[in-house]
Design a protein that fits this description.
Layout (H helix, E strand, L loop, with lengths): L7 H6 L4 H8 L6 H11 L15
Length: 57
């Protein structure tokens, strides 16, 4: 968001709801649909948003 100069307010106005923003802040799961919306809003690819970490269980 910083690289794209995007505020939370602008994400909300672009169709991302508060609950989803809260989930993102807390590193909770989001849907692929939400990921697609974020990529469209930020004009980026999923690889620029998502990182996968292996569980140490």
């Amino acid at each position: 968001m910083k690289k794209k100069n995007m505020s939370q307010y602008r994400l909300i106005k672009s169709g991302i709801d508060n609950k989803t923003l809260d989930s993102l802040k807390k590193n909770k799961n989001i849907t692929l649909y939400t990921l697609e919306k974020l990529c469209n809003i930020l004009d980026c690819t999923p690889n620029e948003i998502v990182t996968f970490k292996q569980d140490n269980q």
